Amino acid sequence: MNSTEACIALNMLPMIGPVRLRKLLQVFDSPEHILSARGAALRAVDGIGSDVADQIIGWENLVDLPAELARIRNFGAQVITAASLTYPRQLREIHAPPIVLYVWGELTERDQHAIGVIGARRTTHYGSESAKKLSYQLAYAGLTVISGLARGIDTAAHQGALAAKGRTIAIIGSGLSHLYPPENAALAEKIASGNGAVVSEFSMEIEPDRQTFPMRNRIISGWSHGILVVEAGLNSGALITAAQALEQGRSVYAVPGHINAPSAQGSNRLIQQGAKLVMEASDILDDLSILLPEAKPTPAAAERPLPTLTEEERRVYDAIEATETSIDDIAVKSNLPSGNVSSTLLRLELKRLVKQLPGKYFVKLG
After folding, report:
1. What's the mean pLDDT in 297-315?
2. Phi, psi (5° rounding) for residue 302?
3. Which among 127, 179, 292, 319 has most CB atoms closer than 10 A?
């Protein structure tokens, strides 16, 4: 048995959670040693009573590890632990980081820089379109969009990121064998097929319930640098996630809604309480540029590499001189229609490659 398999087994024990595992690891060198420890040694650990110790001692009677490993393999998933390089660094910092993450798809280094987009399941057309637009812009700018695969705002957020050909992560409140809601199975498959990953902390056969969703929400907020609430009623679960984000030291953003719309009362209240009002992605990107300053270039790497650019983006970018350049000059040098130049400049701004100055002048960043 290796360390990951031991973590899978411990995660499947009802009385073992992240906090108790942390205490056990302070005494025992590894997850494997926890499972092979004697009862007296287990009971001596702070917070580990007789019931928990007995459960660990008899873990093989409670957990069918070979069957779980077969389910993971047959589904095409993988499991990572906090020791894995792809485990989100932000998530390690929260009070109760998941013992394991079941991953269907692939995680990349880019996913370490993420923004959560959440909201109501019963949403308005305005809410859905706002979530799609902002998620598109955020993903296009290079951030990974994280949401919960639920109906409403979550679905729109994933769709917006996919439309931008960006990265998106779906954190679900069930095991991978019980994707919820079932009508989003095709969306989940599209995410996992090369645009991100579907992720759960629960073993394969766990079904969703009232307890699993709040647990899921702490992962969304803990993984993200900030949470964007697009539309939420006063009793929306999105407000719980926003509260968790604040406890975890994350930023909270909100999209304003109609003052008479019940679906916007919670998100409007967040703004009233101090959440940053968001009307476009740049409101978040400007804020995150303060939280995530770019490293100063070293002599060996004076210029940061450019992200992949389309032909139009490259022509517009190259048309900007070393000093500030007017939009008219950019249009002439790029030999593109002014409308194309304006939209392309916006995309380059979202990618943090150019900055607009007063008077429709632009400069390159970095």
Report:
1. 63
2. -70, -25
3. 127
- In this structure, are residues 253 and 227 in contact, taking their beta carbons and an 8 Å threshold? yes
Buried/exposed 113-126: b ≥16 CB within 10 Å, e otherwise: bbbbbbbbbebbeb
Same domain, 191 and 319: no
DSSP 228: E
CATH number at residue 203: 3.40.50.450
Q: Which range among 3-17, 115-129, 184-198, 288-302 shows the weakest confidence by mean pLDDT?
A: 288-302
In a domain, 84, yes or no: no
Q: Is residue 91 part of a domain?
A: no
Measured between alpha carbons, how far is 154 from 145 in angstroms, rounded to an integer? 10
Query: In terms of residue numbers, what domain contains 355?
Result: 311-364
Distance CA 82, CA 88 (A): 8
Q: What is the pLDDT of residue 297?
A: 38
Residue 264, Cβ density class (10 Å: 0-12 exposed, 13-18 middle, ≥19 buried)? buried
Closest CA to 365 of 307, 356, 355: 355
Question: Does any domain span residue 297?
Answer: no
pLDDT of the residue at 363: 87
List the beta strands (DSSP E) in 82-135.
100-105, 114-118
Q: Is residue 96 part of a domain?
A: no
Instruction: Please tell me the predicted confidence (pLDDT) of residue 68.
Output: 97
* Same domain, residue pair 271 and 338: no
Tell me the chain's radius of gyration from C-alpha atoms: 23
**pLDDT tens track for 103-146:** 999 999 889 999 999 998 889 999 999 999 999 999 998 899 99
Is residue 358 scored above 80 in pLDDT? no
Do 266 and 315 lie in one domain? The reply is no
For residues 315 and 285, state if they share a domain.
no
- Cα angle at 56 between 50 and 61, to 5 degrees? 115
Number of domains in the chain: 3
Length of the chain: 366
